[in-house]
Amino acid sequence: MDQQIGKQKAFLTMAFGGPNSYTGLDMRKAHAHLVARGLNDSHFDAVAENLTATLNELSVAQPLIDQVLAIAGSTRNDVLGR
Ligand code: HEM
């Protein structure tokens, strides 16, 4: 999980317009073996829900949460391999 957390952090920092230190796989390649095992919209929705809950818990302003979700959501088709 430590490695996964590091990769998620670097990817999202880059996706949100911060410094780019992401050296991991692209989203399509990273999740292809999971799509083969049934990864689908319900799993993606669950990740988005957890992200929203966490940002709410941290009292992040709603317009910023909306922006985060729009950016994270823009990876949906790549993550789900379509
Ligand atoms: C906003 C959507 C998502 C983003 C931005 C994201 C981002 C990432 C990143 C950066 C990696 C690392 C790639 C690498 O190893 O080089 C990764 C791997 C992984 N992701 Fe996601 N992910 C997303 C959605 C999901 C969902 C919906 C699931 C399943 C519920 C998932 C499960 C995994 C797993 C298990 C790995 C590790 C694969 C492996 O090392 O074998 N991800 N993801």
Summarize, please.
This protein has 82 residues and is an all-alpha fold.
Describe the structure.
It is a single chain. This protein has helices spanning about 1-15, 25-35, 40-55, 60-75, 75-80. By secondary structure, it is an all-alpha fold. The protein has one domain: Globins (Globin-like). Helix 3 (about 40-55) runs antiparallel to helix 4 (about 60-75). The chain starts with a helix and ends with a helix. The protein binds protoporphyrin IX containing FE (HEM). Protoporphyrin IX containing FE binds next to helix 1, helix 2 and helix 3.
As a whole number of angstroms, the C-alpha radius of gyration is 13 Å
Give the fraction of residues assigned to helices: 55-70%
Elements, N to C (H/E): HHHHH
User: How confident is the prediction overall: mean pLDDT?
Assistant: 96
CATH fold-level name? Globin-like
Q: Per CATH, which architecture?
A: Orthogonal Bundle
Bound molecules: protoporphyrin IX containing FE
CATH superfamily: Globins
- Number of beta-strand segments: 0
How many discrete structural domains?
1
The global form is globular
According to CATH, what is the class? Mainly Alpha
Sheet bearing the most strands, described? none
Total count of helical runs of at least 4 residues: 5
Strand content: under 5%
Low-confidence stretches: none
Kindly name the structural category.
Answer: mainly alpha
